[in-house]
Amino acid sequence: MSNRFRTEIEEEQAEQEAIAEEAPKTGIPENWFTTFLSKGVISTETATGALPFILFLAALGMIYIGNMHMAENNIREIDKLSKEVKELSWDYKTTKADLAFKSTLNEVTKLADTLGLKEPVSPPQKIVVKEDAQ
């Protein structure tokens, strides 16, 4: 602190308070949005009155966006499953062709020869059982 009289200090504080009181208080800054709401077509009361409708529209927009995301995910999953079905179809067709090739007479005899079985030369005979013999 400096060596001054108390009255001088009080006078300076009073002057500073007077200057602070004279300065205009700015509550809301002046920009185009506040000007539009206060002096334009829409007043603050009508804006607050329309707030439920605006919130309803915002909710509908969010639902629409969520629905689009779900639809895109479903389309991606359908594409993935259709590719998998195509691959499984190709596997089925190749397996079926291999089975048809391996079940031919020549291939069966080749596989039987490896097991030690041979193709019979004589034709098969029919066994007839008489009922009297029992």
Automatic annotation (TrEMBL):
The chain crosses the membrane at residues 47-66. InterPro entries: FtsL-like. Keywords: Coiled coil, Membrane, Transmembrane, Transmembrane helix. Residues 9-20 have a biased composition (Acidic residues). Residues 1-23 are annotated as: Disordered. It comes from the Bacteria. Residues 71-98 form a coiled coil. This is Cell division protein FtsL. It comes from Mucilaginibacter mali.
